[in-house]
Design a protein that fits this description.
With about 350 residues, the chain is α/β, with parallel strands linked by helices. The chain folds into two domains: about 210 residues, Rossmann fold (3-Layer(aba) Sandwich), CATH 3.40.50.720; about 90 residues, Alpha-Beta Complex (UDP-galactose 4-epimerase, domain 1), CATH 3.90.25.10. About 40% of the residues lie in helices and about 15% in strands. The protein contains eleven helices and 13 strands. A seven-stranded parallel β-sheet has the order 3-2-1-4-5-6-11, sandwiched between helices. Helix 1 packs across helix 7, helix 2 runs parallel beside helix 4 and helix 4 packs parallel to helix 5. The C terminus is likely disordered. The chain binds nicotinamide-adenine-dinucleotide (NAD) and 2'deoxy-thymidine-5'-diphospho-alpha-D-glucose. Nicotinamide-adenine-dinucleotide (NAD) binds next to helix 1, helix 4 and strand 5.
Length: about 350
């Protein structure tokens, strides 16, 4: 099996690449990544020299490059994670999200379609990694299931919803072997510190304000990133063509409660008196179009394929804090931008 993972130098992608490279020595894992501000090869130093791993620097928006890569390498499957992923950035620059998330996805589908047409047995999976944000916002009750109607509100979620529709259209029209999963908020090591949890870990460490949008009442359903990677592995290998799976932790928290818990954990870890870090909490102007509540019903995945989350949130958050505190170089390189010099160009096409 030659598997192309896109966005493998990002947060979730790097966990996915690591899992596949270590668990399946007989597969060759190609990691295609543009290395945007969110891509960092330092996320993969532990596996970069493994014989079944190859890095390719490239942009999924460049159709000619993508077509050439697919015709040369003749992948058997694609796991597509590359995306612009931050809601706040989508509010200031929506077009970048259209290019990468919509056009980039269609470029990959087109290139994969050629391989599928040439040999339907050989190209056997196009796995599109999506988000629960496509379902919109919940009130106080209810959960997103696989049949919840799409209702995206941010340019980010609109672009992901659009890409999901294209993937389904290629399955229905060209019978391509597509699968989609929609996951809730991930947290864990290698999370870029623009997102709520790693941003606040870094700010607590440096005694800086913790910016909470609005009143901090918005609810997210948090899942440890390695549990997401395990779910993708199970779905990739076992799901029926054309199916969709929701992935989530059944783990809903208001933002303010997440940050209070984080403050408590870090008071202990940093030997600060109880309550010290909470004083850093600062309520700031709310995000435009801020979705109130996400909650994923992952019953189908649990019943059909036997997956379940492995970690309680308190345990996962403590593990995450420990990782950030013992990987100061990673954090400092990322916050200074130094990490962008890391790529040597060795595998550049
Ligand atoms: P990330 O921003 O950390 O990583 C994205 C990666 O894609 C980076 O390595 C970046 O360099 C690469 N990339 C961006 N544009 C590219 C392009 N044009 N060509 C090639 N590579 C490009 O994102 P993440 O949080 O790891 O999310 C990965 C995927 O999972 C995304 O599709 C996202 O929508 C989805 N998702 C994320 C979450 C979450 O909580 N982070 C939850 C559910 C789904
Ligand atoms: O639900 C899955 C999605 O989760 C993924 O598809 C996205 O790629 C990922 O970025 C994430 O989106 P969110 O917008 O939920 O994540 P973020 O970490 O940006 O924000 C989490 C919550 O915290 C959200 O309600 C906004 C709030 N927030 C965020 C930041 C960055 C703050 O209150 N202050 C902040 O500084």
């Amino acid at each position: 099996m030659k598997i192309l993972v896109t966005g493998g130098a990002g947060f979730i992608g790097s966990h996915m690449v690591r899992l596949l490279v270590n668990k399946y020595p007989n597969y060759t894992i190609f990691n295609l990544d543009k290395l945007t501000y969110a891509g960092n090869l330092a996320n993969l130093t532990d596996i970069e020299n493994k014989p079944n791993y190859k890095f390719v620097k490239g942009d999924i928006v460049d159709a000619a490059f993508i077509n050439k890569l697919f015709s040369e390498e003749k992948f058997n499957a694609v796991i597509h994670l590359a995306a612009e992923s931050h809601v706040d950035r989508s509010i200031t620059n929506p077009l970048e999200f259209v290019y990468t998330n919509v056009i980039g996805t269609v470029n990959l589908l087109n290139a994969a379609k050629e391989l599928f047409k040439a040999d339907e047995k050989s190209f056997n999976r196009f796995y599109h990694v999506s988000t629960d944000e496509v379902y919109g916002s919940l009130g106080d009750t209810g959960m997103f299931t696989e049949t919840t109607a799409y209702d995206p509100h941010s340019p980010y979620s609109a672009s992901k919803a659009s890409s999901d529709h294209f993937v389904r259209a290629y399955h229905d029209t060209y019978k391509m072997p597509c699968v989609i999963s929609n996951c809730s908020n991930n947290y864990g090591p290698f999370h870029f510190p623009e997102k709520l949890i790693p941003l606040c870990i870094n700010n607590i460490k440096n005694n800086k304000p913790l910016p909470i949008y609005g009143k901090g009442e918005n609810v997210r359903d948090w899942l440890f990133v390695e549990d997401h990677a395990r779910a993708i592995d199970v779905i990739f290998h076992s799901a029926a063509t054309g199916s969709t799976y929701n992935i989530g932790g059944h783990n809903e928290w208001t933002n303010i409660d997440v940050i209070r818990l984080l403050c408590k954990i870090m008071d202990k870890k940093l030997n600060r008196a109880d309550g010290t870090n909470e004083k850093l909490i600062t309520f700031v102007t709310d995000r435009a179009g801020h979705d109130l509540r996400y909650a994923i019903d992952s019953t189908k995945l649990q019943n059909d394929l036997g997956w379940k989350p492995s970690l309680q949130f308190e345990e996962g958050l403590e593990k995450t804090v420990d990782w950030y505190l013992s990987n100061e170089d990673w954090l400092n390189n990322v916050t200074s931008g130094e990490y962008q010099k890391y790529y040597s160009g060795q595998y550049a096409r």
